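Figure 3 (text version): structure tokens given as input.
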């Protein structure tokens, strides 16, 4: 029987779960990898940057011409003028691998796997082992096996020079003992692929070490109010599931000892919201004008401006709804699309929009952290920014303490609270950008010089609608809590 072709990614999928390997191979149409597209894009961008740090390397193009890639790699391995190969392509016993960076040194080859993570993870060793197994089996002398990941201490100087962003860690000691196991892994994977779809129960492997893209296919339909949505979760969730209790409404009345979990059970069974009038007392004691502030931030893995570290969050947009009195609502906003560092123009616009007095509502402590970071970036604005920090009022703990609706499914995020409390306002009505990650991606696309003017205009409109809704939601939520 012909051997089934395998690749490193298929072997890694099969190690997570044999059923995943089977589905990846025979039923890729069942896959939902929409959530991982952005991660792939980040990985690719970091991989390209890493290659720039090894000048003179030869890239084996990754087109459909596999034979060509194998032949070009073979030639490059023999050519003494080629010191470094990117995406070197090898196949042994039907297992295909592409080595991110392969460097020829005097005492042998240095194999470097590139990851956009900021540290070595336990599962990276298996990735490297598959690569090394193929190379060693073909007779190549692999002396060192490394993982190259993002150095989160790197500070970009703004000169196009990213030397120092790649941190190479020697994993030879960790990887060598498991290289011999790859033979067995390959045998097991092939057995999976010649059989029927494996019968494997869902479990922790579905989200560890990676989120499996077949969860929609494998997981049974959830009950309306799953016990897994109890706030704080904890061992009680497993205990209830073990007793066959899947829906919060089926939990016996005296079972939950955690006050918040019991509140969620009680409200869910009752089927109507619970609003503590103490919230109104608290909110009605606050003066006007009242401001409702929300930022959008981006934290690109590859820093864009001088002074940035990898993944450092930088605000590029804010929305602010202003209640001058009980009946007057106005809106201010800022969105930087210039591609220049947005911190100063944003901070100055925000200081102007927020005036000198009145509570500034935020939802969770995120806005506080963003303003503290602005103080770090802009020490000359420390005084006005610190005065804003002193006026911040976090709406989140007020909502959490005093309000719950069954539709919130154990979460007090604004995206759960708003539709439950103010059904006429829905995030699901937004076109395009409708969460923080999408907002960050939209901004990075806007400042990409290759993005067309038309696309920029579309993204700009989406960002403004999204951020506007965030602060309008805060206004409406605060008004409901206050008895409005
Ligand atoms: S969802 Fe879980 S059980 Fe299904 S293939 Fe993925 S890891 Fe395996």
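Below: residues designed for each position.
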């Amino acid at each position: 029987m012909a051997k089934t072709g395998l690749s490193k990614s298929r072997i890694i999928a099969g190690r997570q779960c044999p059923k995943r390997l089977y589905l990846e191979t025979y039923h890729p149409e069942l896959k939902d990898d929409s959530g991982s597209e952005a991660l792939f894009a980040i990985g690719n961008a970091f991989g390209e940057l890493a290659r720039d740090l090894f000048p003179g390397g030869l890239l084996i193009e990754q087109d459909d011409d596999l034979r060509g890639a194998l032949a070009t790699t073979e030639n490059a391995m023999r050519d003494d003028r080629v010191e470094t190969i990117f995406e070197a392509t090898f196949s042994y016993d039907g297992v295909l691998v592409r080595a991110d960076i392969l460097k020829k040194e005097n005492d042998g080859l240095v194999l470097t796997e590139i990851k956009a993570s900021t540290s070595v993870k336990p599962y990276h060793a298996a990735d490297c082992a598959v690569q090394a197994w193929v190379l060693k089996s073909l007779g190549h002398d692999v002396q060192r096996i490394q993982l190259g990941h993002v150095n989160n201490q790197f500070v970009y100087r703004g000169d196009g020079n990213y030397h120092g962003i790649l941190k190479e860690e020697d994993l030879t000691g960790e990887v060598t003992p498991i290289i011999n196991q790859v033979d067995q892994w390959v045998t097991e994977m092939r057995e999976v692929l010649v059989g029927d779809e494996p019968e494997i129960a869902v479990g922790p492997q579905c989200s560890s070490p990676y989120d499996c893209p077949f969860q929609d296919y494998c997981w049974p339909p959830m009950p309306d109010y799953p016990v897994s949505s109890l706030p704080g979760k904890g061992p009680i969730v497993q205990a209830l599931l073990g007793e066959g209790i899947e829906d919060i409404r089926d939990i016996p009345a005296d079972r939950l000892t955690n006050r918040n979990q019991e509140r969620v059970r009680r409200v869910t069974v009752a089927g109507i919201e619970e609003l503590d009038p103490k919230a109104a007392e608290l909110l009605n004691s606050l003066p006007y004008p009242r401001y409702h502030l929300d930022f959008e931030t981006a934290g690109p893995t590859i820093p864009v401006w001088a002074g940035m570290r990898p993944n450092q969050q930088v605000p590029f947009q804010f929305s602010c709804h202003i209640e001058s009195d009980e009946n007057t609502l106005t809106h201010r906003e800022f969105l930087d699309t210039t591609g220049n560092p947005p911190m100063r123009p944003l901070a100055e616009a925000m200081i102007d929009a927020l005036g000198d007095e009145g509570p500034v509502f935020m939802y969770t402590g995120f806005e506080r952290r963003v303003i503290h970071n602005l103080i770090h970036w802009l020490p000359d604005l420390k005084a006005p920014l610190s005065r804003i920090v002193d006026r911040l009022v976090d709406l989140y703990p007020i909502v959490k303490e005093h309000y719950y609706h069954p539709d919130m499914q154990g979460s007090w995020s604004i995206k759960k609270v708003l539709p439950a409390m103010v059904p006429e306002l829905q995030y699901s009505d937004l076109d395009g950008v409708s969460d923080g990650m999408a907002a960050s991606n939209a901004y990075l696309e806007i400042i990409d010089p290759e993005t067309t003017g038309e696309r920029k205009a579309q993204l700009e409109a989406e960002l403004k609608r999204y951020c506007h809704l965030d602060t309008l939601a805060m206004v409406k939520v605060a008004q409901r809590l206050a008895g409005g």
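The chain has a mean pLDDT of 94.
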